[in-house]
Design a protein that fits this description.
The chain is built from 9 helices and 16 strands. The protein has one domain. The chain has a 7-stranded antiparallel beta sheet, with helices on both faces. A hairpin with a 2-residue loop joins strand 7 and strand 8. It is α+β, with helices and mostly antiparallel strands and 398 residues long.
């Protein structure tokens, strides 16, 4: 896991991230520029030349923190020409899906899967961007993955909310400035005009609660000591209660999709039952169906229509900007607790250090939550209201 800054070691960043392709993680072949905040999204929510707040720069140490502002259309990072072309296709497919959601048009299961792919791309892209420009508090060198390594590799969940039509245009991300997100980009929120999307992705986040096979940590004793590694366990073959059980501060429709980073041939037995098979379009490749939860009922291969839009609608009050940020912090803490983090076998010491780091970062999120709640309670301290959201000048809320 990445090492956080502290008062002992040098704070100067030497960002190799800024030299590598954001998609594949190698030196770009036929170098091009990738907008991690897509051009169509800039134009849909306002001017693509507007200068916006994009976080706090930690590059030069805790005594020299700087507000990072940037023109949106110049917020670019290196990419291979081939990679950029490939993911431009995803952007072209995602744009009409977002527009349909804003305009309350029917959205198919295939389009919801496109939305999940796009959210994976944007979430990891923002994480890499933060490492490159210094708004991520963790060291910028050697990220373990890039965008192409994370699309569709872990369970995915989203909660969709629609604000009234009269809400002004704007683009806001929540959660991408927290140290917990800097450690592992598993959860964030996004406002696109009247559409609010809360998104999370992590192994076993959904599959375990759906009664499907799921990854878990196993402890093994070896001559050199205890080693922790991942294994696939059999599911309960039924929907379990309390899935995504964190505080939900406003109305929304939940959509989710199990995902596995391997094929059926790599782990057959847990999946070869009738219960598991009903959740897959392609069992051989473990390509799962999108699931929509409407009024507490699970709809496999579900779509979004009038009944779902009714569940998505929310009439915000003056607290909504605070709730938008607070709910994201609570989501991040939930994912940190219920998701699975890790990869190759690690020692007991490394496992305990990683767990302690996550716990400390969750404590920091709880501190930020209290600060936001205090601001909301005292209007003289509250600087996160509708004016900023409507102007679209505060792209990163927290």
């Amino acid at each position: 896991m990445a090492k956080p800054f502290d008062h002992v070691h040098s704070m100067r960043m030497v960002s190799e991230v800024a030299k590598l392709c954001v998609f594949c993680g190698v030196k770009p072949n036929e170098k091009t520029k990738e907008h991690v905040i897509p051009g169509w999204l800039m134009r849909l929510t306002g001017s693509d030349t507007r200068e916006v707040f994009l976080g706090v720069r930690y590059s030069d140490g805790p005594d020299k923190l700087k507000i990072h502002r940037h023109s949106l259309n110049r917020y670019t990072f290196p990419a291979c020409h081939e990679c950029n072309q490939r993911y431009a296709t995803l952007e072209a497919l995602a744009k009409p899906v977002c527009e349909k959601l804003i305009e309350e048009k029917d959205v198919s299961p295939v389009e919801l899967e496109i939305l999940f792919h796009w959210l994976d791309k944007v979430r990891v892209g923002l994480w890499l961007a933060g490492r490159a420009v210094g708004t991520n508090i963790f060291k910028a060198t050697d990220p373990r993955f890039h965008i192409a390594h994370r699309i569709g590799q872990a369970d995915r969940w989203a909660r969709l909310t629609l604000l009234p039509q009269e809400v002004g245009n704007g683009l806001t991300y929540a959660g991408v400035g927290t140290p917990l997100f800097g450690s592992m980009p598993s959860a964030f929120s996004l406002r696109i005009n009247r559409l609010i999307i809360q998104n999370a992705s992590s192994p076993r986040l959904i599959s375990r609660w759906m009664g499907l096979p799921y990854p878990a940590t196993r402890r093994t004793r070896t001559p050199s000591g205890e080693v922790f590694h991942s294994e696939i366990r059999f599911g309960k073959k039924k929907i379990l209660p309390r899935m995504m059980n964190y505080r939900k501060r406003f109305n929304g429709l939940e959509v989710f999709q199990p995902a596995y980073p391997f094929k059926l041939k790599d782990c057959e037995r847990p999946f070869l039952n009738e219960y598991a098979k009903r959740f897959f379009n392609n069992l051989k490749d473990l390509e799962a169906k999108v699931v929509v939860a409407t009024n507490g009922e699970i709809h496999v291969n579900g779509s979004i229509g009038p009944a779902q839009y009714a569940e998505m609608k929310h009439s915000p009050d003056a607290r909504f900007p605070t709730d938008f940020s607070c709910s994201t912090l609570e989501l991040q803490n939930y994912v940190s607790r219920e998701g699975l983090f890790g990869g190759l076998p690690v020692s007991k010491r490394d496992s305990e250090r990683a767990r302690k780091l996550r716990n400390d970062l969750c404590k920091l999120n709880r501190y930020l939550l209290k600060r936001l709640e205090d601001q909301a309670a005292d209007p003289n301290k509250n600087d996160d209201g509708y004016e900023e959201m409507e102007k679209g000048l505060k792209v990163i809320s927290i």
